Amino acid sequence: TQLLEQSPQFLSIQEGENLTVYCNSSSVFSSLQWYRQEPGEGPVLLVTVVTGGEVKKLKRLTFQFGDARKDSSLHITAAQPGDTGLYLCAGTPSGTYKYIFGTGTRLKVLA
Amino acid sequence: DTEVTQTPKHLVMGMTNKKSLKCEQHMGHRAMYWYKQKAKKPPELMFVYSYEKLSINESVPSRFSPECPNSSLLNLHLHALQPEDSALYLCASSQGGRGGSTDTQYFGPGTRLTVL
């Protein structure tokens, strides 16, 4: 079974703090996506990473794809209450056609 | 335009009712998906349509019946559901639907379904 394990599962931090969310697998991915989802809404795409070692920045969010394309991380600088939500990584393991989601990281940023 | 729309936003139905969920995209995507999501869990894949043909059914009970009338529309017909089927139902689409770098999925806002 191909899995995408995310850590931590839950994170509650104060406004202004930094944090990193990890997404790990034993499988190689041709690309990985990161989504943020708010309660009762659909996941909203944040970024797609494609190349091993790639780093992408989206304002205060920095995404990295591992050199071997088996893992990814999301770093948030100076978190704000608006960053609160469920963060999901997802992708299709190489050699398969099934799109799978990570186990999710629930972030709460307190004002 | 990266919008996927879903109707209705909320649906309450009894176990004997028949209802349908609708999904639409105009991005020219050739793959469309139905997911079920329970509270505080990641989405679980139900069905995949690729080029308007059902390509994946993740052993979903027959009380859920998908339909793809054309490349822009996806329906999910519901009949004789159980209370445990209450969940957020998400529709998504992607450019190619066969993996690779074109497999980024774009999600609709979901339909919150409650089965009484």
Low-pLDDT stretches of chain A: none
The overall strand count of chain B is: 11
Major sheet characteristics of chain A: 6 strands, mixed
- What structural category do the secondary elements of chain A indicate? mainly beta
Radius of gyration of chain B: 13 Å
Rg of chain A: 13 Å
Mean pLDDT of chain B: 90
Strand fraction of chain A equals over 45%
- Give the overall shape of chain B: globular
Measured as a percent range, the helix fraction of chain A is: under 10%
Please give the count of helices of chain B.
0
Report the sheet with the most strands of chain B, covering strand number, pairing sense and barrel closure: 7 strands, mixed
Strand content of chain B: over 45%
Terminus-to-terminus distance of chain B? 37 Å
Number of helical elements of chain A = 0
Elements of chain A, N to C (H/E): EEEEEEEEEEE
State the low-pLDDT regions of chain B, or none.
none
Q: What's the total number of strands of chain A? A: 11
Secondary structure: helix percent of chain B: under 10%
How is this structure best described in words?
The complex is a heterodimer of chains A (111) and B (116). By secondary structure, chain A is an all-beta fold. Chain A has strands at residues 5-7, 10-14, 19-24, 29-37, 44-49, 55-58, 61-65, 71-76, 85-93, 100-101, 105-110. Chain A is built from no helices and eleven strands. In chain A, strands 2, 4, 5, 9, 10 and 11 form a six-stranded mixed β-sheet that branches. A five-stranded antiparallel β-sheet of chain A has the order 1-3-8-7-6, with no helix packed on it. Chain A is globular, with a radius of gyration of 13 Å. Chain B is mainly beta and 116 residues long. At the A-B interface, strand 4, strand 5 and strand 9 of A face strand 9 and strand 10 of B.
